[in-house]
Amino acid sequence: MTRLIVVSNRVSPPNSKGEETVGGLAMALAAALREYSGLWFGWSGKTTPDFTGQLQMMKIDGVTTATIDIAEDDYDEYYNGYANKTLWPLLHYRTDLTAYDRAYGEGYERVNKRFAETLRPLIEKDDLIWIHDYHLIPLGRELRKLGVKNRIGFFLHVPWPAYQIFTTLPGHRKLVQAMFDYDLVGFHTHEYQQAFEEYVLTEAEGVQMPNGCLKCFGRTVKVGHFPIGIDAADFARMMKSARASRMRDIMTACTVFRSLIVGVDRLDYSKGLEERFIGFERLLADNPDLRREVLMLQIAPVSREGVEAYQEIRGRLDALSGRINGEFADVDWQPFRYVNKNYRRDELAGIYGAARVGLVTPLRDGMNLVAKEFVAAQNPDDPGVLVLSRFAGAARQLKEALLVNPNSPEEMADALKRALTMDKPERIRRWRALYDNVQREDVTAWRDAFVNELAGVEPRRTALAS
């Protein structure tokens, strides 16, 4: 069997006991690697005063990992800088938050080169190399410079924006040119793929080939869309665990037979949390009869605390949650619970299972696996309703959800009211269609579609990028 090498910014494989916290990429990649002999290479999550390139190898729950520490200045410039202050906001259409700093770009290039140099000795002749996400766009180019002729694929886990947005990035052409050192470039949705193609055809004067390839910069790359899913079978087993059952019972008791609305998101401005809080506030304001009948729980683990934009959003959300409870709470009822901590996936499964409504309303999202986990956690005989942003990649698949524009508090409030009052036959009909998609287009289908496509690409005769 051909060996698979997966490369991502962070290596944090979940274990079979369900002890990992939210993190769709880690879950999906670990599920993929268990089926292939190979390894997962990337950053350990630790920093060191000076870069050494020393590898740490281990095997965890059937997944072989190879990790390196990065230098402290690399963390500041590559991770906190170019990845999180430049590319992340840009790719999520937040040009107002995008920071341009030459040092950030230099750190980004430096770390990708160091990744390539450390990974190169581990690569064998017939390995397939699968590189993930915006942190590592130039890695394929750096591997080609080192003589790697293997098939190399790249998958983007976040949206690719319209070319008018992407061209606001200094050095945008160089970044796109680096993507032409891959054999296959994948996106979650056809919309993101089309946006990338539009940039290549319009801005870089590339050519669309009849076989699904783009030709530009003197090279050819195949592009496609591969919607990621969850490990549906594993999640179903997790739902039966003692910890999931206990959490479901706790939530049922805490809601005192009220309808639970739940949201689970990393604390990030792309997730539309402020807009979601305001939409829930509008529901309470417009529907006095529902006030004591509902309870909303928002779980939002804190992330990227070193980035100023995240500190600011946390302060605004604290104020909003306090305002909602101050306005609508009574001596024996509080409508809103806002929690900034991580929970295990089996615990989240129990919370999803106790909820009447799953509220997933990002302003922009590559896919959103929380939406799919919520669907998988429902009782088939009495399922909850998914309210989903039309701007999440998952909206292209989960069409039986109640799709909303998260920028409209009125639209969100109306959808919540409809979800809370929806009769059981309609809930069951919608859930069955959603669950069919979650099972059919799961992580295995995603993995196989991408890896099979990559394996079928004609290998490169030369490794050096022009």
CATH class of the largest domain: Alpha Beta
E-strand count: 16
The separation of the N and C termini measures 32 Å
CATH topology of the largest domain: Rossmann fold
The structure class reads alpha/beta
Q: Mean pLDDT, as a whole number?
A: 92
Q: Strand-residue fraction?
A: 15-25%
Helix count, DSSP H or I runs of 4 or more residues: 16
| Rounded Rg | 22 Å
Largest sheet: 10 strands, mixed
Write down the overall geometry: globular
Range of helix content: 40-55%
Provide the CATH superfamily of the largest domain. Answer: Glycogen Phosphorylase B
Q: Could you describe the 3D structure shown?
A:
- By secondary structure, the chain is of the alpha/beta class.
- It has two domains: 4-229 and 444-455, Glycogen Phosphorylase B (Rossmann fold), CATH 3.40.50; 232-440, Rossmann fold.
- It is built from 16 helices and 16 strands.
- The protein has helices at residues 24-33, 72-91, 102-119, 139-145, 163-166, 172-178, 190-202, 232-239, 242-255, 273-286, 308-328, 345-354, 369-376, 409-421, 424-440, 443-455, and strands at 4-10, 38-48, 56-60, 63-71, 128-132, 152-155, 184-187, 207-208, 213-216, 219-225, 259-264, 294-299, 336-339, 357-360, 385-389, 402-404.
- The protein has a ten-stranded mixed β-sheet, sandwiched between helices. It has a six-stranded parallel β-sheet with strand order 13-12-11-14-15-16, sandwiched between helices.
- Helix 2 crosses helix 3.
- The radius of gyration is 22 Å and the shape is globular.
- It starts with a strand and ends in an 11-residue tail after the last helix.
- Residues 16-22 have low confidence and may be disordered.
